[in-house]
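fyi for ur records
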Amino acid sequence: MFSRRQASSVRALAELSEAQRLRLALAAAGDVVYDWTPGDGVMQWTGEPSTHLGFGEASQYASDNGFHALIDEAAAEARLRLVLSPPADGGAFHLEYSLKTGGAPIWVEERGVCLLAADGQAERIVGLVRNITERKLREAHLSWAASYDEMTGHLNRLRLREKLAEHLEMKPTVERKPAVYCVVAIDDLAVVNETYGFDTADEVIVAVGRRLGEAAGAKCVVGRTAGNKFGLILDGCTSSEMAERMAALRAAARARVVPTHGGAVSVSVSVGAVALPQDARNSQEAMARAEEALDRAKVHGRDNFAAYSHSPQRESLRKRTVSIGDQIVTALAENRIVLAYQAIVDAKSGEAVSHECLVRIARPEGQIIAAGDFVPVAEQLGLIRRLDRRVLELTVEALHKHRGASLSLNVSGMTASDRPTLESYVAYLEAHADVAPRMVVELTETAALIDIEESMRFVSRVRALGAKVAIDDFGAGYTSFRNLQSLHVDMVKIDGSFVKGLADSRDNQIFVRTLVDLAKNFKLETVAEWVAEAREADILKAFGVDYLQGFYYGKPEIKEPWTL
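which gave:
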């Protein structure tokens, strides 16, 4: 129901003519309409154009000469051409132009139609004008943001790479001078984040970017390539000048503390550089080799520099890493990730009570690749999460297929420390909760300690499904009594490096016995890995170890043990 005031407004609107209602609608939309007769130069407007467009006096909009004086010359000429040569497609036209404010630009969009006289010239022109400044500013910002980093104002990674490509694609003439591309990383920015907060870290990034640009000089191209990294192209810098120029950049960064709202922050940077064009054929290679040099600089601590130098050994290692990475990705895509099963036996009876699932790659020709040949590369390239997920899927599949099987599987440190991946992992377990009671999920000791609270939640959720959780490589990390108690795991697997050669090492025997006693104190089952001979097995049994695993009891086999 309308109120009395609303009902009165509706009646008043109904009494207006169609033209009057149209004017009200246009005014509400911020548009103004003109009726222009070129013969006498008169322009009649609905509403007040100077108010709607935000510039000029009302009198200036009353004639075409006055209006043309307000707009840019190109637009004025285009409007005058409409009179002599109206558009052929029915007289409709569309223009965009700016007003000559002398200050911040005001942009205008004009759409209209020419009514033609017998001689083909425009006798009357009717059009609509609107202020599009906000849209133009938005478009300009989007265009700027496509090339520049919003925080620092320097080029973004994509545009910097294009600049590198432009330099390297120049013909080898005097036009292309020697240059250096370097990547500069702010040391320990994560510590600044943790100590002062992200806002302060952002202030540090902006300040360091500004200092680098000033120190490098006007001819230098600066871009932000990552959170704490900047890339610089130093045109005209030779390889012999490189060390000196990089020292100047480092000195500029650490010369004085950075004043921030969170307090004064001391800053240093590490630098990796590559000489152009001799040490990089393209922009991708230049960026990769500068990053490689930066990694070598960081090995020596904060505030260091390293230049790229070709190393056949390093290049061979890089190619091998890439090749293995390709094999992993292809194997995942072609379902050639397989499991090898190794028996875990009861120390008293010597009978297999479960099996550990170990990841392998099956080559197309049938050869099996051991985990040690590809897992380190998978961790380096971030592919280990996908392998962990595939091992989980294969383990669940095997448990569904063989109701009497009991299996254990590993969760890598990268999966355990990445919440989204871990959440997805647990969700998959929850979807197959019926087989969970026959599973043991092994979490390495070091991975469990990365984020103890996250590990506690993970262990709790897995155990709630009926699965057991084991701490793998027990003794290799620094688990405290409190951490071991708070994790609420079911068993520990003693690191095989302490079991290897156990019979001949008094120190290892003392250490392993201490680990077993510690586990018993917390009522945890124990598994000893890498058992290779009868003497080691006898010692471990005497210590009270519950389960044994190693080549003495069987090597990992691709063939499913329950089918043997």
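The chain has three domains: 4-137, 148-310, 342-356+384-552. thats all i got for now
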